[in-house]
Design a protein that fits this description.
By secondary structure, the chain is α+β, with helices and mostly antiparallel strands. Helix content is about 40%, strand content about 20%. It has 26 helices and 25 strands. Strands 3-2-1-4-5-7-6-8-9 form a 9-stranded mixed sheet, with helices on both faces. The relative contact order is 0.07.
Length: about 625
């Protein structure tokens, strides 16, 4: 609906009432829905007597008709979600959930119920514009034959932090009822504006004993985008005690604590809690309460095309069970039955992270030898926070200068430059010499570099100084203008500036067994990727061959965070628990002299007592 989105962006104010009137009126007009009594919808009906607004409506209907030819409830939900302001989207994490995901969750949590009592209660505690509540209402009508009016009044409950989202939920459900001829003057809704982090349902519901079903899509807001008030509220939740919690994490505890006995929870949410530091307390919580828990993991597939997130569906029943059921799946092939593996809660390690794929094999790898993190030190590369200013491939050089093309051609004194490599490019087979670039290095050349004074740079490296002065305003924009640097020309962070003799470079992400390059040039810097540092050259060679083995890559694919295009992270927290097998002197000699990859793979598979397919 790109053209429809564009029309709303270009021709509508940001006032929710104005844009909602246009959307609702277009829905009624296109679907030829007429009504006489409902007062809420009357407020949103654009009449022909309002000439200017009606002309805008006709144009909007024309755009929709040319683009889609129809305007059903799914298109309505998409438009309601689209017109949420970008600022609110960042802070509150609202995101459109595809219909097939909502339908699947509703079917698994409500559709399989054999009996729906008059006291049966369904809630979405972060309901947004009401998509899940719409599907729940449709399913309840199919199962009970009740009127939508009674369903809204007795069974449907919703909460959202934004007033306009609650209002859009009311509009959506009202249109659902009106579309089948239920033209009530007023529908009674149990839809409330409030913050789930401190909302008390017992104040709104008499003799509240929990919801029979809670479903939804908790807000997608990472810790760095949370407001201070929200961060304070997170502190009251047990599951937020580790790391800097993302906003979705407490919604599990909130939902579970508001479930009735034997009640069902169905969420689609991020799968990062399997392994992340900020998910540790949540993992602890799940293992402590030990409820019936089924996970359908989408791995590296991005279900939400507008959001760079990796997700899973979680079903929890409020009764005790000593294992988790886990399945990996393709979202477009969701079906009622999956091949679930059962993993005992006691076999999971909340501190290390949950190994849910091939749990027994991964546990064997991690229990072999000594964990990587206890033997080796890894570092991230330098962080200038403006690589395109500092790092360059010279277009030419002479005896004293490198020539840098960045808008204009600049001369940079060779004395202020160092060699640097982008180790992220090692996800492919490359030659180190081809990776080398130059970095303007405004630090002295000692073992522990210190920032040069501005006076010294100006005097000793006047050409580099003129270039950096030219880019000063750009450098000032680092860290959104709030950076506290030792001086304006300093790198954004001071990490990895010191000289290190032996380094083994490797990328942060790869879609295959990456290249690992060992280098002993203590002056060579690196950026973007990672490096093992501080070990002897012999240790590095053995480690390189272990990390290039099929065993290591199998471990990464099974335990690491997935990214799009089947890339996986090799960050320190994902490799620190990999067991480094112990080798006899004879085995050390064999590994050092053997270069055939297949032979080494068979050797390490035998050492770890597994067969990698």
């Amino acid at each position: 609906m790109k053209n429809s989105y564009r029309y709303l962006s270009q021709h509508c104010s940001t006032v929710p009432m104005d844009v909602d009137r246009l959307i609702v009126s277009a829905f009624l007009e296109i679907n030829k829905i007429q009504f006489s009594h409902n007062k809420l919808l009357k407020e949103y009906l654009i009449l022909k007597t309002n000439t200017e607004e009606y002309a805008k409506l006709i144009n909007f209907i024309s755009v929709i008709s040319r683009e889609k030819g129809q305007f059903g409830f799914e298109e309505l939900i998409e438009l309601f979600e689209f017109v949420i302001s970008p600022a609110d989207r960042i802070i509150n994490g609202a995101i459109y959930t595809p219909s097939y995901i909502r339908e699947y969750i509703v079917n698994q949590t409500i559709g399989k119920r054999t009996e729906i009592s008059n006291a049966f209660k369904i809630s979405d505690i972060a309901c947004g514009c009401g998509g899940f509540l719409l599907n729940a209402s449709i399913t309840l009508k199919q199962k009970t034959s009740k009127s939508y009016s009674n369903i809204f009044r007795d069974h449907i409950f919703g909460l959202d932090i934004q007033d306009y989202s609650i209002n859009r939920s009311k509009l959506l459900l009202s249109l659902l009822a009106i579309s089948v001829g239920e033209d009530e003057e007023h529908f009674i809704f149990n839809l409330f504006q409030g913050d789930s982090l401190d909302f008390d349902w017992s104040v709104k519901i008499e003799q509240f004993c929990g919801f029979d079903t809670i479903l939804g899509n908790p807000p997608y807001v990472c810790a760095r985008n949370l407001e201070e008030e929200t961060k304070e509220k997170l502190k009251k939740w047990e599951v937020c005690k580790s790391g800097n919690s993302d906003l979705y994490i407490p919604f599990f505890q909130i939902a579970i604590e508001n479930l009735s006995l034997n009640g069902f929870l169905g969420f689609i949410t991020m799968n990062s809690f399997f392994k992340s530091l900020n998910g540790r307390a949540l993992r602890d919580y799940f293992q402590r309460v030990s409820l019936v828990f089924s996970i359908i993991d989408f791995g590296s597939e991005q279900v939400f095309k507008s959001k760079n997130t990796y997700t899973c569906i979680c079903f929890i029943e409020n009764r005790k069970q000593n294992f988790i059921s886990y399945a990996s799946a393709d979202s477009i092939k969701l079906k009622n039955s999956h091949s679930f593996k059962k993993i005992d809660y006691n076999l999971l390690d909340s501190k290390k992270g949950w190994n849910l794929k091939d749990n027994k094999v991964i546990s064997r790898i991690e229990s072999t030898g000594i964990p990587f993190g206890e033997l080796y030190q890894t570092r991230h590369g330098i962080a200038t926070l403006k690589n395109d200013i500092y790092i360059f491939k010279p277009v030419s050089e002479d005896e004293n200068y490198f020539y840098l093309q960045n808008g204009s051609l600049y001369r940079i004194e060779k004395g202020i430059c160092k060699d640097i490599v982008n180790s992220n490019k090692l996800s492919r087979e490359v030659i180190l010499s081809e990776l080398k670039e130059k970095v303007i290095f405004p630090y002295d050349q000692q073992a522990k570099p210190k920032l040069l004074s501005e006076e010294l740079i100006k005097e000793k490296y006047p050409e580099a100084y003129k270039y950096l002065r030219k880019k000063r305003s750009i450098l000032a924009g680092r860290d959104k203008g709030n950076g506290k640097y030792e001086n304006w020309f300093a790198f954004g962070r001071t990490q990895s500036l010191e000289k290190t003799k032996n380094k083994m470079f490797f990328p942060k992400y790869s879609d295959r067994t990456p290249s690992f390059i060992i280098n002993s040039d203590e002056d060579l810097l690196f950026y973007n990727g990672l490096a093992v540092v501080g070990s002897s050259e012999t240790e590095m060679i053995i480690l390189k061959k272990i990390m290039e083995s099929s065993v290591f890559w199998y471990y990464i694919k099974s335990t690491s965070k997935p990214y799009s295009s089947n890339y996986f992270s090799l960050n320190g927290n994902y490799i620190r628990n990999f067991g480094i097998c112990e080798l006899t002197d004879q085995e050390v000699e064999f590994v050092l002299r053997e270069d055939n990859r297949n032979t080494l793979n068979l050797f390490f598979e035998d050492k770890y007592e597994l067969i990698v397919k």
